[in-house]
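3.2 Worked example (two chains)
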Amino acid sequence: MHLSSAELDDLLTTEAQKAKASHNGRSAVAVLKDGHLRHTLITLLEGSRLNEHAKPLAATLQVLRGTIVVNWAGESRVIEHGGLFVLPDALHDVVANEDSAFLLTTVVG
């Protein structure tokens, strides 16, 4: 399966609207799947959070819009638009510093 940049831009717009309409200021949609590989588009409004959770087998995120902060074990990392980050092997949460969207790529067992 292939997803063009125009299709991804359309998804970003749609998911931002869903986040604005939701009570928790966030949205998520599965974009592509290939066996154990998953790509999920996550949108967070400014101040919204993904509560603490464990990392799957392997995971990266790439910020497509905005700025997010990943917090884990007393550490944190700010990831800005365009940034690509390997998630830590620890419980972590994600907070949006501004309206943001990122592509989460995971390998699930």
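3.2.1 Second chain
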Amino acid sequence: MIQIQTLVTFIIYFIFLMGIGIYFYKKTTNIEDYLLGGRGMGSWVTALSAQASDMSGWLLMGLPGAVYLGGGKESWIAIGLFIGTVLNWKFVAPRLRVYTGNTNSMTLASFFEDRFQDPTGLLRVITAIITLIFFTIYSSSGLVAAGKLFEAMFSINYSVAVIVGAIVIVLYTFLGGFLAVCWTDLFQGILMFLAITIVPILAYNNVGGIDSIREAMISKNISMGLIPEVNLPLLAIISTMAWGLGYFGQPHILARFMSIKSIKKLPEAMTIAIVWVLISLGGAVVVGLISIPMFPNIADSERVFIEMITQIFNPWVGGILLAAILSAIMSTIDSQLLVSSSTLTEDFYDKVIKKDASEEELMHVGRICVLLISVVALFLALNPNNTVLGLVSYAWGGFGAAFGPVVLFALFSKKTTWKSALAGMIVGTIGLVIWKQVGLGSIMYEIVPGFIANVLTISIINIFIVEENDQILDEFDQVVEIVQNGDLL
């Protein structure tokens, strides 16, 4: 049965998002505005936009569902992600902002090409192809989450629910570009934060406290601690913590670092982001633990947060909190669509198809690309057997294994050449895909062998082929100096 109050809340929320998209449609005047917000974003918008687009529907659906099934040991995922977040903001963000500013790179693919001065264009093309493949999978995970949410709340067909969610997300991304995405992410990040802190506190009292949770977990033979009574292999801990490695290669998160107004704003943004992530991940784990006694026989574990809200809150408040789940979903998909659009526009159309395209033409192409990518992701999402966490883990691992080591070597290794970067990227991606396809993902998360293969490939080639271009070497030294001095760009 559809709750009218909840429906009204969602409609108001949709109208609010459309209003933001229309407002920034008028503010967006060139391709840099559309893709990176004119590199003028403040600390709060950058921090909450980065983390909201990072966490997605899996924070409020996938992670609680994993904890519901596996208990406290699944918290290693959250620990790994927290460590990865801190390292990414501390070490990657400053150098990436300075480097992309110096080279005027607006996508990760163009940054790799400009940083290493690849004369063949292969580094940019391969990066763009990998980005499109994994972002299509990643975007479909968000549409799956949207479908599950609308199906549960409004008793509508799953396929219809997925299509409705896709239309709303595409509209405001299509209109406002990066500015609309970042400002909606700011509000969505606040809403997600409120939901993930308020709901578990009230639900904890509702189930009767820690004793009730412990009894339910014992009855299901689920461990509450990080290390279960039955020995948890070190390999399993490494595998779950390895989610943190993915941060260094996520294009939609790295784009936020590129967009901030100045590296002087990064310390404040980092503090905001770390506090948000720490509390949000902790809240998601608690939701999963509380749901074990609250829903002993739920059919779909990824719907525990939805059911928790509907059981505890009245329809008006519940509608607002459920909108937080939609926020988590939308804040990531919009970023993924925009980065994919950026890749097609900046790295293919502008540099391969039509090199003299006008700013207006590039913005039109960017908007068309949003529509094309959305359609492909929509078809993938129409399979109701897909799980949010399953799709996210593959895409997250793909980006981490393909791009993570290349980003780190680009920012911290002076001698790395485009040849070693390209070889590492290809080997890391192939290693991840093979590991997954032969069924070894159940033993070790595929990002680990892919990441290691990438690092080893680059390191070995660096022994034999060393960067000797004085311009590249001088630029690297200049970036290091700017970051160390904390200068404005």
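3.3 Remarks
The radius of gyration is 22 Å.
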